[in-house]
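User: Hi! I'm working on a homework problem where we have to compare a predicted structure to a textbook description. Could you give me the structure for the chain below?
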Amino acid sequence: MSATFELSPENLRAALDRLNLPVDETNLVRAGEVSLAEYERITSAALSGADPADRMKSAMDELVAVLSETLGAGG
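Assistant: Happy to help. Predicted structure tokens:
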């Protein structure tokens, strides 16, 4: 199976935006650190999808959930 989700700056920006957090350097760095620490959790969510679009949505939803829990955001 090919990778359908990456912890890219674009995905981190999209997740911060969904949480209504400022997309600035500080938040991007924090989001990157948190995401790397929870990478297994995020990729496990991605594997639960039936097709590439579902995997991407599941991974993004999990990324948003992880950031919400750790950065104290809500959106």
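For your comparison, note the following. The longest helix spans residues 52-71. The chain has one domain: 9-70. Good luck with the assignment!
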